[in-house]
């Protein structure tokens, strides 16, 4: 087995395609992209092909009142709560493969803010709902959200709408459109390593031909 191991070691690692999603929890287009495109691509692709960063804040605004951060969100206080829940989930879970299914569960469900307990039970029963709630209601959550605000404000070019998508640190209208049309196709095209099966690699089944009359 030594030969096969050496062959693997000698291959330089290929960097994954990096996607950063700047979004807000109740924006319909954000929810659609996260649920239909991003989560699907993440499920189908190995982690060495796609690396994802989520920044829930979007078109919100912050102000410092007596040393504490307060936020106003485009879709009202419910959206601020949704942003905060998702931010605290990331903080508590740490591991992307733990918190992304939770965020998917919240965003794809009937209510982003009311389904936390149910989503935790299904996707991450090991996470402490009490700790998440303490983060959401306390200074920790506000400070984490302030960090999201800083990341969003630092965007160059500045974001004009959400979802605002960066691919390998870059935003262009063309990349945005390609990501929203077929994210899987875009990542497969950009990834420099050996193409994963989901990209129609050699091991993928051939497409069936159309049923002609």
Report a brief summary of the structure:
Its EC number is 1.8.-.-. The chain is of the alpha+beta class.
Account of the 3D structure:
This protein is an alpha+beta fold. It has one domain (17-199): 3-Layer(aba) Sandwich (Glutaredoxin), CATH 3.40.30.10. Helix content is 50%, strand content 13%. The protein is built from eight helices and five strands. The protein has helices at 2-10, 28-44, 77-93, 96-108, 116-123, 129-137, 139-153, 173-190, and strands spanning 17-23, 50-56, 61-65, 68-72, 164-167. Strand 1 (17-23), helix 2 and strand 2 (50-56) form a beta-alpha-beta unit.
CATH architecture: 3-Layer(aba) Sandwich
State the total count of DSSP E strands: 5
The number of helical segments is 8
> Could you state the order of secondary-structure elements as H and E?
HEHEEEHHHHHEH
Basic shape = globular
Strand residue content: 5-15%
Low-pLDDT stretches are 203-207
In spatial order, strands of the major sheet run 2-1-5
CATH superfamily: Glutaredoxin
End-to-end separation in angstroms reads 52 Å
What Rg do the Cα atoms give?
19 Å
Name the structural class: alpha+beta
Keywords: Disulfide bond, Glycoprotein, Immunity, Lysosome, Oxidoreductase, Redox-active center, Secreted, Signal
Family: Belongs to the GILT family.
Pfam families: GILT (PF03227)
Enzyme class: oxidoreductase
């Amino acid at each position: 087995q030594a030969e096969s191991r050496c062959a693997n070691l000698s291959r330089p690692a290929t960097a994954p395609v990096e996607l950063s999603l700047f979004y807000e929890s109740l924006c319909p287009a954000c929810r659609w992209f996260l649920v239909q495109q991003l989560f699907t691509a993440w499920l189908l692709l190995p982690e060495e092909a796609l690396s994802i960063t989520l920044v829930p804040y979007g078109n919100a605004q912050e102000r410092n009142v007596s040393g504490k951060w307060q936020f106003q969100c485009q879709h009202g206080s419910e959206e601020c709560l949704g942003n905060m829940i998702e931010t605290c989930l990331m903080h508590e879970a740490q591991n992307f493969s733990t918190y992304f299914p939770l965020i998917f569960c919240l965003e794809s469900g009937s209510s982003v803010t009311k389904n936390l307990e149910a989503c935790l039970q299904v996707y991450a029963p090991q996470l402490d709902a009490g700790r998440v709630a303490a983060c959401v209601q306390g200074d920790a959550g506000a400070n984490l959200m302030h960090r999201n605000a800083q990341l969003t404000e630092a965007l160059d070019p500045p974001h004009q709408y959400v979802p605002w998508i960066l691919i390998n640190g870059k935003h262009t209208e063309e990349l945005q459109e390609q990501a929203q049309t077929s994210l899987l196709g875009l990542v497969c095209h950009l990834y420099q390593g050996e193409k994963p099966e989901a990209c129609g690699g050699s091991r993928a089944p051939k497409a069936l031909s159309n049923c002609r009359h």
